[in-house]
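The records we work with from here on pair a chain with its fold. Taken together, the tokens spell out the fold as the letters spell out the chain. To see the layout at work, look at the sequence and tokens printed below.
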Amino acid sequence: MGRALPPDAAFTHPGVLVSKGQLDAVRKHVNAGEQPWLGAYLDMRDSKYGSYKYRPQPYASVDCPGGDKAAEPAHGCLEERQDAIAAYTQALLYSVTGKQQHAAKAREIMDAWSAKIKRHTEEDAGLQTAWAGSTWARAAEIVRYAPGAGWPADRVERFATMLRTAYLPNVTRRVPDYNGNWDLAMTDAAIGIAVFTDDHKGFDTAVSRFRDRVPAYFYLEKDGKVPLTPPGSTFTTPDRLRTYWFRQGTYKDGLAQETCRNFKHVGYSLAATGHIAETAWHQGVDLYGDVKDRLRAALALHARYQLGEAAPAWLCGGKVDRSMGPDLEVALNHLEDRLDLPVPEAHRLAERDRPSGTDDLFVSWETLTHARNPAD
């Protein structure tokens, strides 16, 4: 595996999903009362996550059974995800307003968890740590590097230790035979943690994992008659691939491994792909260049049917689950506003759904941070 960054290269901070330039642009748009940023800001401010009265609920062990074992496990899973989003929300609010109460609340939430959390257990530990870990890294990066945020160095280090010990072992576990949204969400967390902790090896590993998984998740006809497979996968025959792709046997540009499962999980993967590539972009590594054609095709295909167009018979037997969440803004911003590559269907969908809020998992306030915001 080649290095993504020279070993002596300094990481750019803040640089987990959002850059200083992007945060400055957000502040300027909101203060000028411009849309869609003002509406997105007000939605964020007025959410439960933006309240000064928000109280964290840390757990020592977060235990998340998978599948049908529990609709919403009661051992810290919901609380952890919500607290991470609240910390990120408060960090963004501080960046926009400069109000110390928001910086203090973000610190309070992160300090509460870093003082208590020890482990994640049960079948969904990988996904839980992916969702929460990616959001924690974004929040921590902003607060650590925001002027005047006042996060003491010892608390910063304790939080970094928490990410290394209670999250990183889970999100770096190899899962080549799992549905691809796991791999991508886990890589999203891993690259964010790597930047926050200035971990070159972790960053390089996340970049390599991205390059393996994205071409195996979003299909292009140039790949051949059947999709590519990630290294280590056992889905290596046409019949096994058809099963893995939820009984889809016709492959066309933009199809995703979970298209015929539902659009919700494809949305998770589109969001995570954008998050990883955006974080790398802020570090001077262009992962978008490798996958822009796949992203554009996948955004176009899924947005078309999410908007209501009837699915043709070749696609999932003519029945698709239109359940995509607020997952388009990061990738769309790069394609349209940096590369001038229009994606009309995705553009219409994003505009219809703006301002996008949060999925309460790992996607939050991306109309605010990334809509028409190509700043580095």
Summary: The mean pLDDT is 96. The first helix runs from residue 20 to 31. The first strand starts at residue 61 and ends at 63. DSSP finds 14 helices and two strands in the chain.
